[in-house]
Amino acid sequence: QKILSHLANIDNNLALLKQQISDEEGISSLLYLERLNLNFQSTAKEAFALLQPGQKGVTGIYIQKIDSLKKMNEFLKVNVQELITIELNYYKQLKTELDRQTAQTGFITLLSVII
User: Fold this and answer.
1) Most CB atoms closer than 10 Å: which of 8, 54, 113, 115?
2) pLDDT class for 111, splitting at 50, 70, 90?
3) pLDDT value at residue 40
4) Which residues of 17-43 are buried (b: 16+ CB within 10 A; e: fewer)?
5) 0.85 cut: is pTM over it?
6) Which residues have CB under 8 Å from 68's CB, separation 6+?
7) Secondary structure of residue 57 in the 3-state scheme
C-alpha cells in the first residue's frame, strides 16, 4: 500500500512538472520520463502480483522483475538528472536574454533622459 502511494506521488509530481515546463527540449524529456515511469509502474505491479497468496513457482520470475525494476530505477534517475540539466540550461539562457533586454532598456532610458 505504501509503495502504491509513492507511485501515485510520482505521477502527481510528473503532472506538476508538465504544467511548469514550457521549452520544447524539456517537454520532450518529460514525455520520455513519463513513458519510463509507466513501464516502471507496470513492472512493479506485476512483481507485487506475484507475491499474492496462492502464487506458486514464481520466485524466478519475481527475481527477474525485481532486477528489471532496479535497472529501470537507475535509468529513471539518470533521466531525471538530464531533465533537471535541460531545464537549468533553458532558464540560464532565458536569464541571459532578460539581462540583455534590461541593459538595452536601461541604456535607452538613459539616452532619453540625456536628450
Assistant:
1) 8
2) confident
3) 95
4) beeebeeeebeebbeebbebbeebbeb
5) no
6) 43
7) coil
